[in-house]
Amino acid sequence: MDSDELQTATGAGADRRTTKLAVVGAGAVGATVAYAALMRGAARTVALYDVNHAKVEAEALDLGHGIQFMPMAEVVGSDDIAVCADADVVVVTAGAKQKPGQTRLDLAEATIGLTRDLLPRLVEVAPDAVFVMVTNPVDIVTYAALQLSGLPPARMFGSGTVLDSSRLRYLVAQHTGVAVHNVHAYMVGEHGDSEFPLWSSAAIGGVPLLEWRGSRSAGPLTPAVRDRIARQVIDSAYQIIAGKGATNYAVALAASRIIEAVLKDERRVMPVSSLLDGYHGIHEVCLSVPTVVGRGGADRQLEVPMSSDEEADLRRSAEALRAVARRFGF
Questions:
Q1: In terms of domains, do 70 and 206 share one?
Q2: Does pLDDT of 1 surpass 80?
Q3: Side-chain half-sphere exposure of 159, counting CA atoms within 13 A
Q4: Residues 167, 299 within the same domain
Q5: Is 191 a catalytic residue?
Q6: pTM score, two decimals?
Q7: Domains in the chain: how many in total?
Q8: Per-residue pLDDT tens for 183-237?
């Protein structure tokens, strides 16, 4: 390779667009989101932002020391919001911490106040980013963030019931004795107490879940079994918080898959929380339904067939969230 060719190759490498992920909040969830994203090679640069200077620098340093054992990336951490500049994806985990026995909706007031201060500054430094809200109560916070930011709905959405759907599939897989990857089922609605599973469209290895007849080692998925599983999904976070103070591993893995779906333009169907505008007759509320997620964000909500009971449950969930949003002036 002669000098001109070398210069051209070097220039091409220097101009190649790399991806940047900004994680807002270096607490248990934020730091673990950064770790999961780095382990999966989701972004070339991972920036951590937190108001706690010592904490955010320590987390970035600790993560950076492990880069040798991960796909190559750069890790930076700062208490200056400029560290998020020009990010492709901004994941917001900062918010009030959920205490044992406290519902997600109880967290709304403090977290919305934080979001009101934070969002305009984030949009200013990363105006072209796709924003993923992870902070609870995620549906209310996402709706508030959408109103406060002025961003298009596709570029401002929440992690929603992506984790809840993973919990559902895990429990169904445990009961049926099949691999979790062969269970296809969604939790939808609020990421919280009014969420519910879409049993009517769920399947196990291509077999409609409601037609699953069981096996020698496991009985059928009777209504009683399905109700027990749904209740376990809803109570999972409370159980984990009571035992260890926070949920962080599974939610970070869920967030990292959302990040990858955006940065790699995967067009992956995920139950993220986004603004509904006529979905099954529901308007002006953010909640989770199966949605195509790609480089532009939450692109298209799938009109999944629902039973009459499921449609009624979705409307109830929407109304519960709308009532809370109104309480806080949205």
A1: no
A2: no
A3: 30
A4: yes
A5: yes
A6: 0.90
A7: 2
A8: 999 999 999 889 999 999 999 999 999 999 877 677 889 999 999 999 999 999 8
Does some domain include residue 278? yes
Last residue of a domain, one of 129, 158, 187: 158
Q: Which residues of 113-151 are buried (b: 16+ CB within 10 A; e: fewer)?
A: ebbeebbeebbebbeebbbbbbbbbbbbbbbbbbbbbeb
Backbone angles phi and psi of 177, in degrees to 5: 75, 30
In the listed set 114, 140, 158, which residue is the last one of a domain according to the structure? 158
Q: Domain range spanning residue 136?
A: 17-158
Report the CATH number that the domain containing residue 135 is assigned in CATH. 3.40.50.720
Determine which one of 53, 175, 181, 191 is catalytic.
191
- Please check whether residue 4 lies inside any domain of the structure: no
Structure tokens at 172: 């169904």
Q: Which amino acids are annotated as binding site for NAD(+), given as ranges?
A: 25-30, 50, 55, 95-96, 134-136, 159
What does DSSP say about strands 45-49 and 74-78: parallel, antiparallel, or unpaired?
parallel
| Residue set of the binding site for substrate | 98, 104, 136-139, 164-167, 247
Annotation: binding site: 25-30, 50, 55, 95-96, 98, 104, 134-139, 159, 164-167, 169, 184, 247
